[in-house]
Structures are given as structure tokens and as C-alpha cells.
Design brief:
It is a single chain. By secondary structure, this protein is an alpha+beta fold. It has a single domain (11-148), classed as 3-Layer(aba) Sandwich (Cytidine Deaminase, domain 2). It is built from three helices and seven strands, in the order βαββαββαββ. Strands 1, 2, 3, 4, 5, 6 and 7 form a seven-stranded mixed β-sheet that branches. A hairpin with a 2-residue loop joins strand 4 (91-100) and strand 5. The two termini are 30 Å apart. It binds tetrahydrodeoxyuridine. Tetrahydrodeoxyuridine binds next to strand 2 and helix 2.
Length: 157
């Protein structure tokens, strides 16, 4: 028996101004996308923005439903829209922001497991690492690829 360790490297920023131009633009798009959130049950507004290899940004926001499982997270709303609209373009980065009453939460919004799995699939499909930017008020995390937030990705297909 041997004990193994998985290390995760990521970057932390204290302001959007510390991001490079493309990431700042994507982060601002995710924050703006929070306006499209429909969250009458959780009152938690999440916005996401996906950048494609052609530079296009596709936004999404969480959409809730009285039949709870019928709703969808912001990240998957954005990724499915991007995948359906630009099937031949790789997704290169995704930003997400969350908060209550449209106000950004202090701690960065982190994607649920199902969204991470969908990110992994599009990363494989596009053949390009997808960086993930998680935005909080005064704290931003950037991970360089989906593998960093979903270690031991299921990729048997
Ligand atoms: N939500 C997202 O949009 N993304 C996530 O990764 C986590 C959760 C949404 C789903 C639901 O509308 C609300 O946040 C509360 O869970």
C-alpha cells in the first residue's frame, strides 16, 4: 500500500482589476448574467459566461422550476446554449458569479458536481483546457483546467 496525494493549483485575486483583459471581460459578463437568473425558490442568483475559441461570450443564468429537478444551473444553461449555437467551437473559459438579490456573495461561487461533469465533457469535446473563474466579492479564484476542480475525471467515452 502507498499513500498518494492530489495537489490542486489555483490563482487567487482580490479584485477583477487583477485579471487579464479577456478574463475580466468574461467575469463581468458572468456578473451581468446574474440579471437573467430566475430563482423564485432559492433566491440565489447565479450568472455564468463561457468564452469560445472564436472569442464569442455566451451567457447563462440559473432557471428554477416548481418541479425542482426541472430547473438548471447557470453554468449548464450557458454551456448548453454555447454547445447548441456554436457546436464547432471549443469552450476555452467559463466564469461564474453568485449571490442573493443580485448582490455578489463574499465567497466565490463554486460549481456543483453535475456542472463540473458537463464542463469535463465539453473540455474533451473541444480538445482545449477550459479555465474556470469563480467570482466572489473581493475574492476571485481561477483554475486552469476542469481537471483541477474534478480530479480523476470519468473519461471512458
Ligand atoms: N446553482 C447554479 O446555478 N450553479 C451551481 O453550480 C450551483 C447552484 C443554482 C441552482 C439553484 O437555482 C440555486 O443555485 C440554488 O442551489
Amino acid at each position: 500500500m502507498s499513500e498518494k496525494e492530489i495537489n490542486i493549483r489555483f490563482h487567487e485575486y482580490s479584485s477583477l482589476d487583477e485579471l487579464d483583459k479577456a478574463d475580466r471581460e468574461l467575469a463581468e459578463a458572468a456578473i451581468d448574467a446574474m440579471k437573467g437568473s430566475y430563482a423564485p425558490y432559492s433566491h440565489f442568483n447565479v450568472g455564468a459566461a463561457v468564452r469560445l475559441s472564436n472569442g464569442v461570450i455566451v451567457k447563462g443564468a440559473n432557471q428554477e422550476n416548481a418541479a425542482f429537478p426541472s430547473g438548471l444551473c447557470a453554468e449548464r444553461t450557458a454551456m448548453f446554449s454555447a454547445g447548441a449555437t456554436w457546436p464547432d467551437k471549443a469552450m476555452v473559459s467559463l466564469a461564474l458569479a453568485g449571490g442573493v438579490m443580485g448582490r455578489l456573495a463574499k465567497s466565490p461561487a463554486t460549481p456543483c458536481g453535475a456542472c463540473r461533469q458537463v464542463m469535463a465533457q465539453y473540455q474533451t469535446k473541444g480538445g482545449h483546457p477550459i479555465s474556470i473563474i469563480m467570482i466572489g466579492d473581493g475574492r476571485i479564484w481561477k483554475f486552469d483546467r476542469v481537471d483541477d476542480i474534478l480530479p480523476l475525471i470519468f473519461d471512458s467515452i
